[in-house]
Structure formats: C-alpha cells, structure tokens
From TrEMBL:
Organism: Glossina austeni
Record bears the keyword Ribonucleoprotein: yes
Family listed: Belongs to the bacterial ribosomal protein bL35 family.
Matches recorded under PANTHER family: 54S RIBOSOMAL PROTEIN BL35M, LARGE RIBOSOMAL SUBUNIT PROTEIN BL35M
Lineage of origin: Eukaryota, Metazoa, Ecdysozoa, Arthropoda, Hexapoda
Gene Ontology biological process terms, A to Z: translation
Protein name: 50S ribosomal protein L35
Record's keyword terms, sorted: Ribonucleoprotein, Ribosomal protein
Pfam family, one: PAS_5
Domain of life: Eukaryota
C-alpha cells in the first residue's frame, strides 16, 4: 500500500500503519475490536467507522473533526437522502461518498488516494474491517475512513471580495467597465465605492474563501 511522504501527510500514515500492524501478514483485514483509538488519539479526530447493515451504511463511531466536516454522528444513516448541512456536501455529492464505500466492500481492498479540485484538497484512506467469517452481506462489515482536509482560497475571489467584521461580503459596484459615456451623472455617482452582496450570492462566494479575507 502507498505510504504518503511529508509532514502534512503524517495523519494518513499513522492510520494506515496502525491498521497494517494489527492486520499482520496473514490476514486481509483486522477486526473492529482490535482498533486501539488511544494509540492513535490525535489522528482519530479525523476518522470515522461505518458499519454496513442490511438497511445500509450506519455511522458507528466518529472523531470530532470528522463530525465537524461530514456531520456523521453516531447512528447516522448514510444514503442518498442524507441532508445534514455539512461542509463536504457543499463540495461533493453524497453519492460519491457512497460509491467509495461500495468499492471497498466489493473489492475487499483498502483505498489510499489524494483528490484535489479548485476549492479543496483532500487525502483519503478507507480501510476494511471485518471478522473471521469475512466481508459478506450476511455479516456486519466495517469501513474505517479518514480524510484530512486542506481548503484553498480561490485567487480570483481574493482580488474581488472582502468580508466585514460581521461576515458580510463586500464587492465593488458592477457596470463600470464600459459604456460610461451614455450613463447619467447621477448613475455614475451612485455606482461609486462598494456594495454588500445578497445572501444567495454571498453563500456562493464564501465557498471559495473558507478562511475569510
């Protein structure tokens, strides 16, 4: 399995190495009760365990950072009707997460990958957990998932928008780039300075400036 290199990737390495150590060379996966959360306490904040039952995927345990980003709390059912206002749902569809879980169950192999878009960079490790009977539809199956998130501010947004102390989005007035000759003096005067965006536009802009500007 690929091991990440670099200080910022340490959490992914800790989780993967702990899973590999307790699995050993003779098994395809460790059992759920063998996971020692105390040994990887710092990394555990970014992890959650999904139990696969007949009714679908159920969150069995989750760290503080995982709950903050995904909204997956204990006993949460994860399906295409999942509608909690979690940050990751503003960037990805829940179907994409379910597809990843399906892949681990079907292949019975870990997933270790890195994904990046214009607004988010994420490192993902999905590791199967099971029991002596294996991973099949008649046995409860587990997936251990960890995502380390590094949100990025879009450079074009930094040039055009700013936040007030109360979190409102400030932008320069529109309609001043061309055609100024035909504008009245009062219209030009009213277009001076900046304006505050409405709620719908502000929500879109804030997706690309996660740490404010």
């Amino acid at each position: 399995m690929e091991i990440y290199v670099g200080k910022e990737k340490r959490i992914a390495n800790v989780v993967t190495e702990h899973w590999s150590d307790i699995k050993g060379p003779d098994r395809d996966w460790p059992e759920r009760h063998e996971i020692d959360t105390a040994e990887i306490m710092e990394s555990w904040q970014h992890c959650f365990i999904i139990e696969v039952k007949d009714q679908g995927y159920i969150c069995e345990n989750a760290g503080e950072k995982a709950v903050e980003f995904y909204g997956f709390e204990k006993k949460t059912r994860i399906d295409n009707k999942y509608a909690i206002d979690a940050p990751f749902l503003r960037l990805y569809k829940i179907d994409a997460v379910i597809d990843k879980l399906d892949t681990v169950i079907e292949s019975k192999c870990p997933i270790n990958e890195e994904e990046e878009s214009e607004s988010v960079k994420m490192r993902q490790v999905l590791l199967p957990l099971g029991n002596k009977e294996g991973l099949n539809s008649s046995v409860c199956k587990f997936i251990w998932n960890m995502k380390r998130i590094k949100l990025k501010t879009k450079s074009s947004v930094k040039k055009r928008f700013h936040l007030t102390a109360k979190g409102k989005v400030i932008s320069t007035q529109s309609g001043k780039r061309h055609g100024m000759v035909k504008r009245s003096k009062s219209n030009i005067r009213n277009q001076r300075g900046t304006t505050i965006l409405g709620k719908s536009d502000s929500r879109i802009v804030k997706l690309y400036m996660p740490y404010g500007i």
